[in-house]
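**User:** You know discrete backbone vocabularies at least as well as I do. Would you mind producing a protein record, from residues through to fold? Write it directly below this note and I will take it from there.

**Assistant:**
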Amino acid sequence: MRKTRPKTVLPEPRPESNRRRRFLSTRGARPRRDPTATIRAMSLCGDDAVTLERRLGRSDVVEVWSATLADLGRCVVKFPAARWSGHAGAARLIERELEFLRRAAHAGVVEALDLVPMRTGPGLVMEYLPGGDLVALAGSHPKHWAGPARDVVRSLAHVHGCGIVHGDVKPRNVLLDAGGHAKLIDFGLARDAGSTSRAGGGTPAYQCSAQWQGAPADPAHDTHALAVMTYELLCGRLPFGSAPDARALETPPVPPLELHPAYEGEPVLVELAALIEMLLTAKADVHDRPLDALEALLGAIIAVHD
């Protein structure tokens, strides 16, 4: 029987890279990247209302840039990548993220400001957060990241209360504002709780096996990712590795106190380590309110070191 390929979120565009390779080979030239080409290609249609400054990130479908927008000032713009220019599916992803951000509006969620037309499709304008992400704090004493981590717990509780599952919680998707408060960003993979979609997408190191299998969106998936993130912040390493398989997820991670025996002298950190270990094992489903428990322990760390 002939096998069918699984559906993808977006149909593949024509292989532009192959066309370019053939074109260049006829002239004996090597492909070279022009750093200003993207800026020219993505600028706002018709006028200079958007000034792109620096690319902050990109995926197969979208690019994210810091920018200056007339009447709004410094901001961040997310828009379809050049290869998806004019593609209705890519435009819908941007519009869909705007819808989720507006539904999840909260002090701990990046603010969506506007939707502007770019040459490749709609551009999602969001507030600029200058404090960087949580990656640099991994492995430092919890007193340095307990505040931002508690902000994430609170924002996730709110997002789940709105019926939304974020789908990609990780240190890189948590940014700090000028005051050091954390905000959850990147709702590109967000889904309504209980909705189904194809398996795949997201960051494997922070996912549970149910997500790989395409299970309906569940707040428990975010809770697992949050536990992975907290372990990473506490220990300076991922609990299951960067590309875990099902067997790795079934193997308990190295206990945090084995990696940081000095924390045994701080009772609240002993409790935090025990909670994280539980949330990363099959015992996680026996805890009724894991976010509340995690928030309380992070608050206790803040109080001790205030």
The beta strands are 50-58, 62-69, 73-80, 112-118, 121-127, 164-165, 174-176, 182-184, 191-192.
